[in-house]
């Protein structure tokens, strides 16, 4: 019988201990994250998917609660979720890609691609880069009340019979039509920050005019499928997309005047397409994706596989400070830089009952996301608690 050398036995023993320690550490980490989200997203209510990765390894990936209350479908990492304003990074990347291909320049003025904006010389000051960084000065004056609607229909042809229908079903071209008769900006483009959605909706027209293609097919071919995203799309109510979620809100105290779906226990009301105002527009908040697809997108984007080095740098370089200390806006992203803490590239979003967050910490190559189909949770508190867990497990240290 051959005996193994002592050195080899020691190496095997140390490897076993190391693996056991790593396993125990991972289990402890997962339990710490569970303790944050178990109470926020109970099993029998609308929930969320939470994914945490470091480099190419996913360390936490769990669905909480229900994706579809009517069908009792659980939330998982393959559930299609509306990612709200995280959609804006796809629109920003599209324009950056077109600039890389010399099809347009971010220094072009918006009138070149949307010639119906003829209300005055102010539009020639608005460049594409201003749309991407929320520095255009374009106000959000979409009609919201019956009085607004009367004014709007006096100046604009519309296919919608009511303000409610406009808010529920209006797409980008209709949603930005008010800009064609606007004669002033809120501020000189590039001099201030104001977070507005209609400027991003203009990207719909920019892409169609510059490429000669329809927006959705071009985005699908060049941004989604072109980058290997098989489960990322814009919502089309006429298509069955499979593993689809719905969003919900706590049931309002009314008699359900519009007949929206409400859960059997009466606690939840469906609140997405057809129920939530301004949900339908695409460039600013219309992307549905899965946690796994979006993680792939983040890895490829920040890994330099989607954009070249110069374009990626432009996307994530701060353009102007916001009103919040330590937070600047880039192109499709926000940048958070605080003393003693690693920089974050991130975006949050809320659309109907969906409420989401996506955070990348480049210094540590850490990415995490929370995609929820309910709005009644404290996002800041949850993300602060998650950061505390990362710090406690030495993910954020030297």
**How many β-strands, per DSSP?**
15
- The number of helices is 12
Q: Which structural class fits the helix and strand makeup? A: alpha+beta
Strand content: 15-25%
Major beta sheet summary: 8 strands, antiparallel
- Helix and strand run: HEEEEEHHHHHHHHEEEEHHEEEEEEH
CATH superfamily: DD-peptidase/beta-lactamase superfamily
Task: Give the mean pLDDT.
Answer: 93
CATH architecture label? 3-Layer(aba) Sandwich
- What is the 3D shape? globular
Q: Give the CATH level 1 class.
A: Alpha Beta
Strand order of the largest sheet: 2-1-15-14-13-12-11-10
- Separation of termini? 49 Å
Given as residue ranges, the uncertain stretches (5+ residues, pLDDT < 50) are: 9-14, 16-21
Helicity level, as a percent range?
25-40%
* Total domain count: 1
Features:
three-stranded antiparallel beta sheet, eight-stranded antiparallel beta sheet, alpha+beta, Beta-lactamase, 398 residues
How does this model look, in words?
With 398 residues, the protein is α+β, with helices and mostly antiparallel strands. The protein has one domain (32-392): Beta-lactamase (3-Layer(aba) Sandwich). 32% of the residues lie in helices and 16% in strands. The protein is built from twelve helices and 15 strands. The strands form four sheets. It has an eight-stranded antiparallel sheet, sandwiched between helices. A three-stranded antiparallel sheet has the order 5-9-6. Helix 2 packs antiparallel against helix 11. The chain is globular, with a radius of gyration of 23 Å. It starts with 5 loop residues before the first helix and ends in a 6-residue tail after the last helix. The relative contact order is 0.17.
């Amino acid at each position: 019988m051959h005996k193994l050398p002592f050195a080899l036995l020691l190496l095997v023993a140390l490897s076993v201990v190391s693996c056991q320690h790593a396993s125990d550490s991972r289990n402890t980490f997962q339990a710490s994250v569970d303790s944050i989200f178990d109470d926020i997203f109970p099993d029998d209510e609308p929930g969320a998917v939470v994914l945490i990765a470091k480099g190419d390894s996913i360390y936490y990936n769990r669905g909480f609660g229900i994706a579809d209350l009517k069908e009792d479908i659980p939330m998982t990492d393959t559930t299609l979720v509306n990612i709200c304003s995280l959609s804006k990074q796809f629109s920003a990347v599209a324009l950056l890609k077109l600039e890389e291909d010399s099809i347009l320049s971010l220094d072009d003025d918006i009138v070149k691609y949307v010639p119906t904006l003829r209300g005055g010389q102010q539009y020639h000051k608005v460049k594409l880069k201003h749309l991407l960084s929320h520095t255009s000065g374009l106000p959000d004056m979409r009609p919201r009340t019956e009085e607004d609607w009367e004014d709007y229909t006096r100046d604009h042809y519309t296919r919608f019979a009511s303000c409610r229908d406009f808010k529920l079903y209006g797409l980008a071209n209709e949603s930005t039509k008010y800009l064609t008769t606007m004669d002033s900006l809120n501020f000189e483009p590039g001099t201030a920050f104001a977070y507005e959605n209609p400027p991003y909706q203009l990207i719909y027209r920019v892409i169609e005019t510059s490429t000669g293609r329809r927006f959705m097919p071009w985005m699908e071919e060049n941004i989604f499928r072109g980058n290997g995203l098989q489960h990322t799309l814009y919502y089309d109510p006429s298509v069955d997309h499979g593993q689809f979620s719905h969003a919900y809100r706590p049931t309002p105290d009314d008699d359900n005047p519009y007949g929206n779906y409400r859960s059997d226990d009466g606690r939840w009301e469906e609140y997405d397409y057809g129920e939530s105002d301004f949900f339908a527009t695409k460039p600013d908040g219309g992307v549905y994706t899965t946690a796994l697809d979006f993680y792939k997108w983040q890895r490829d984007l920040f890994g330099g596989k989607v954009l070249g080095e110069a374009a990626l740098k432009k996307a994530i370089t701060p353009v102007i400070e916001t009103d919040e200390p330590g937070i600047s806006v880039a192109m499709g992203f926000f940048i958070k830089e605080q003393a003693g803490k690693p920089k974050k590239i991130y975006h949050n979003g809320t659309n109907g009952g969906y409420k989401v967050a996506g955070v990348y910490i480049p210094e540590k190559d850490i990415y995490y996301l929370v995609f929820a189909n309910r709005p009644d949770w404290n996002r800041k508190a949850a993300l602060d608690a998650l950061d505390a867990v990362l710090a406690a497990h030495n993910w954020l240290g030297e």
